[in-house]
Every structure is written in structure tokens, then in C-alpha cells.
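Shape matters. Shown next:

___
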Amino acid sequence: MTKTLAIVGARLNSSRLAGKHLLPLAGEPMISHIWRRLMRCNEVNSLELATTADNFNRPLLNWAKEHRVECHPYEGDVNDLMARLDNIIQRQNPDYILYVCGDCPLIDPEFIDHGLKALKHSDKDSITLKDGVQSLHEGLAFYSRSGWNKLMAASQCAMSREHVGYADRITPILDTLAIDDSADYSQVKHRISVDTQADYRFMAETYRRWYQDNDANSIVDLLGVQQLLLDEPELKAINDHVQQKRPEQHYANISLYCHIGPSIGLGHLRRCALIAEALQEQLGTGTEIFVVGQACELPWLHTKICWLEHESQLISRLSNDNNQLLILDFHPSYIDETTLLPVCKQMQHQGTSIVAMDKMSSLLPFAELLFVPSFFTRLQDPKLSFGWDHYLFEPVPQETKENLVLILTGGSDALGFGQSLPKAIQQTLSPDWRYIWVQGPLAPSPELAGIEKIALMVNPPNLATLIAKAKIVVTCYGLSLFESMAREAAVILLPAQKICDEDELASLAETDACLVSHTTEEAVNYLTHLQSSPEQMRQLSEKAGSLFAGSNGMSILIQKIKALLLAGQST
């Protein structure tokens, strides 16, 4: 009997989306969906998972054991994918091999059978689609045993050992059969592999839509996905911007450094997480965030992260960072600059590019760029970049506004609004409105006892969507203030004198885009008036939206970082 072996390659240490193979799609890990799809292939009669024996992949090995999936983790070089696969092939001794990338949960069983049948009825080494045939298929490679042996023998350089089929791209050595597609998948061009958080959002939404209308035992139909992409541009836009990494191209690794805490909040980390994802998606860089503070679970944090208990650990890690570019995002009041600045001077002498964020103007002598995601700064320097178009927001779809008041007091509620504001606001509660108090992950519980009208949400994963839906947002000073304005809410700023200079507050008030309060009582009065004044809400909403019209701070920052990386490569 002819033996056809399908091998799924997967490791959990992806530089752009660590742990991606176990991320849930419609309630099951992505790798489970790949297995279900392969089980429907009539031409495949043996399956094996190819991963490595390092501890990082232990959760994947546990999944394989639980689901009785054959897996013998490879003990050799973790980057030598060809050897990892060949180790399985030598043991299994198949006649034909199908290699499947473990980040492609839309592999099509019909196309796999179509390709394998064609290969088996030929005397060729491999198959490919005919010239000019455009298709959605990704993450598949087909080989006869003799074709695999040729490819293995030709895979001598590091790049060809790490990427299946790369040796044949450098110097064609395989006798390849050109075939037609199994169906017409040429109607739209779109990536369907999961390499970044944007890819995952796209895939999760695609799976969600499918299982809303189809049986749980079905699989997501690739032709149906093609039609969705044609019919719904907003779905396609989720990951249209993601750059496909090329094996022959070098991609930089970038480290981001920040801190969190009860006094600092989570804003620096949240900003670094957004920047890291954008770098992964638009420049293909590997990223890791180093955070001083107590480790905590955050629903929006998807980048590889290293928690540091003490500032001394940060200084040590920074001193030994060999990456081409570093992003430093601290509040100067909460870091010892007498130890930080000498290290940055040392990094500058070594040729490392430093991007300083926000208030870290002390780094200007050693940094290539000071990026201030704000409309306001007193600084003047050629390395400075700031403005209304510089804010860094999470992309969210447009939402219909609701009679919703959202109360945001920050990740740690550093100013203690949770103890004073609930009682003050209790008298303003209207039966025509919903009220949600968002408690940050580092914040104490607000005093809401007996105030049933205000719903409490702790660290909600859909905060950006809630902001987009709210007609009114009551917020402390920080990213949430400007994100709420950008989402065209009528915004009331809680007293911010302790964390914001008076001239900055005055400049903000002059825009007439939000209501700046100086006491809790004033904030409550603003809320009472707004709830009964649709015209003022409309005016605030329109003015706030106009300030951010066409702004894209992340694109500005990414282009500046790209220029720094290119300059560093040319020196």
C-alpha cells in the first residue's frame, strides 16, 4: 500500500506571534483545526506533528499527547527544520510527503487530494500550480520520496535548512509537475497564514462568522472565505497591511523597554504593545518587551514579554542588548536617570539606535528620535516629532453610538477616583443611560456598593470597542482621554492637576473638544448637563473627531523607525 505522510511543522516561539498554534479559533486551538482538515484528506494515511524538544514547546507536546497525535520531538538544532522533518521521514518511510505549515488553518482538503493524486500519477518530484494561476492556498508542499531526498541533499546553507523548499528556489533541482487548481481561487489575493496579531484577528473573525451559520462538525470552506473577502472589505482590511516575510531577507529584532506600577499605571506597556505589533506587521521585525513591574495577565498583550522585578535587572539587560534598535518608554519621575543615561551613552557609542518616547527628553543627546504621541510639548529639537496626528491608538471598527457613559480611571486609578467619584456621580444617574465603570488591572475596587445602576467591568478585553460605542466618556488624563476623543465621544476630563501641567490643560481646553474639570463636583455637573444636551454632545464629538481626522501616528512612527533601520544597515 502506498504510504502518504502529512507532517505539520509547528513551534511556539514565533518572533511575531509566540504561541500562535494554540491560540483559539471558534473555541479550539488553531492546530486542532489543521488536524481536523487533514483528517478529511482521502490521499493522506499517516499524520505526524514536527516540533522540537525544548521546554518552550511543552504545551504543544501536551496537546499532542491529549489528542493522541503522533509526535516525537526533535532533539537537534531547533532552527534546522529540514533535519527535523527528515528525522520523521526516515522513521516513517513514506512514498509521498505533504508538508503543512502549522500556521495555516485554512488548508483545503480537496486541493490536497487533488495535488497528491496528480503527483502519484506522475513520475515527478513535486507539484506546483501552472504559470499564471493565482490562488489562496498557502503553507503546503508536496514531494515524492525521491524528490524529498533530492531536496534534502541540496539543502546545505542555513537558509535552506530553515525553510522547506528554499534550496530548490536557489538552484532548481526538482522535476516539478505544473497542475491546475482544484477550484477557482483567483478572485482575490489575500494572506491566510497566521504570523501576526492582525492575522489572528482576521482568522478569528473568519472562523466566528463561519460557525455562526454552520454545524460545529463542519470545516471553514475556503471558497466561502474567498467570497467573504470579496463581499466584505472591512474583513480583508484587518490584515491587508501585514508584510509577508521573505526567507532571503534579514529582519531586525527590536527591544522595547517600559515600566508599570500602581503609581505609573499601564499606559507605557499598552503603548509598547501597540508599537510592537505594528513593527511585526508592517516591517516584519521580531520584537520583545522588557517590563519593570509585577507580572500580570493582560488581554491585549500578545507580544513576547520579559518581566523584570527590579530596575537593576533592566539596566543589566539594556547594557547587554545587541539589537540594532531600542525603544525606551518610561516616565522620568519613576526611573533613575543617573543609571539609565550612562548606559544609553554606551549604547550610542556601540552604534545602537535609540528611540525615546514621550517625556524622556533627557535621552535626546543619545537618541536618534524623541517621539511624543501628544499635541503638546515645550521642547524644540530637530530630533523631536509630535502633534495631534502622532497619537498611537488600537485599530477598532466603527461602532454605532449608544446611550452609554463609560468611566475610565486608569490602569491603577493612581488619583483614587474610585473612592470619591461613585457617590458624587450617583445623583446624576439617568434611567435612559447605561453606565459602565472600568476598573484597571492594578486599580483597587471602586466604592460601588448600593449603586446598582453602574456596572463594573474589570480589565475588559474589548475596551477599545466600548470606547467606540460610548456617547459620553468620563476619564482621567492619559491615553484613554485622547482615544475617547478620537472615537468621537463627548469627553469629560477628571481633575488632572497632579499629573498634567496647567499650560497643557489650558491648551487642551482651548480646543473646545472636551470638557476639562478642575474638581470632582465640576465633572459631575458636566455629566448632568451633557446627558440632557444632545446638541453639546454633538458639538464636542464633531470637534474632537476633527482634531484626529486623517491622523495615523503609528504609520508616522513606523516610517521613522524604518528609516533608522535602513540607515543603520548602510553604515
Observations:
- Residues 198 and 239 are 5 Å apart (CA to CA).
